[in-house]
Design brief:
single chain, 267 residues, 6-stranded mixed β-sheet, 7 helices, globular
């Protein structure tokens, strides 16, 4: 069995659809499962009708903000929204400036026969780094606890906009961005903790070096000049890694300030 999984921060599902750019994405990537971040809509507001896909949404309570969704040709065994109350309480996520993280629609977990799939829209620390401490000390450990607990049961793939460039190869201009949002020591340490826990950055299984980015500023012709950041990922547990036969950045797909990423699994 071959499965292609895709992840895309669409920066507003209605905006992408309005530009007639969602179907071209499906035509190019041909995903069996699509994970979306920053949908910025409730399910009933979605203009998409994807024939043959089961839809699962975790929208933010706040209108036009955040939100995730999964569209899958294979019906999952189970779908769960958000982090558990136990993890929120353990890591103090219910009483900080993220508010109730589950109210922001940031995580969906789908269980399939052979693996778990998690889509995540990691909170941005803001340009002034005002949310850096809470992300580093609370969010990142809580999310890692979530995927580690799943990995004890069966293999795990998790994906999404993780809002961090891991190494200097993951952004076009590393030197002037050291210490800035998305490239702080703390955010990078959070990513390193995922690798230390045994999760594998699938893109780096196949492709090394710089120039491969998934997000570009709307300013200064950044995308045209490929002055970007790789902040969208697929990571898998070590027992799933042998089943990953391909990993791609689809930087020709337009419609958002992010482009999709994908992996192909063979079982």
């Amino acid at each position: 069995m071959t499965l292609r999984l895709a992840s895309w921060n669409v920066n507003g599902i209605r905006a992408v659809h309005g530009k007639d750019l969602f179907q071209p994405f499906l035509d190019e990537v041909e995903p069996d499962v699509v994970c979306l971040q920053e949908t910025k809509a409730q399910q009933e507001q979605s203009p998409l009708t994807l024939e043959g896909y089961h839809e699962f949404w975790h929208s933010a309570d706040k209108a036009g903000y955040s939100g995730t969704a999964i569209f899958s040709k294979i019906k999952p065994l189970k779908v769960t929204n958000g982090l558990s109350k136990r993890l929120e309480t353990k890591h103090g996520l219910h009483d900080d400036d993220f508010g109730n993280t589950n109210a922001e629609g940031r995580v969906i977990t789908a269980e399939f026969d052979d693996f778990y799939l998690v889509t995540c829209y990691t909170p941005n620390v803001k340009d002034d780094l005002s949310r850096l401490a809470v992300r580093h000390e609370k969010w990142d450990p809580a999310f890692l606890d979530h995927v580690k607990a799943l990995a004890k049961k069966k293999p795990v793939a998790f994906c999404g906009d993780l809002n961090v460039a891991h190494t200097e190869d993951d952004l076009a201009r590393p030197k002037p961005n050291v210490g800035k949002a998305g490239f702080t020591d703390e955010e990078r340490a959070g990513f390193e903790a995922m690798l230390a826990a045994g999760f594998v950055d699938t893109f780096r299984m196949f492709t090394q070096g710089n120039g491969h980015y998934t997000w570009w500023s709307y300013r200064g012709r950044a995308r045209a000049n490929n002055v970007g950041w790789r902040i969208d990922y697929f990571l898998v547990s070590q027992d799933l890694a042998p089943h990953v036969v391909d990993a791609n950045v689809h930087d020709s797909v337009m419609g958002s300030d992010h482009c999709p990423v994908s992996i192909t699994l063979e079982f």
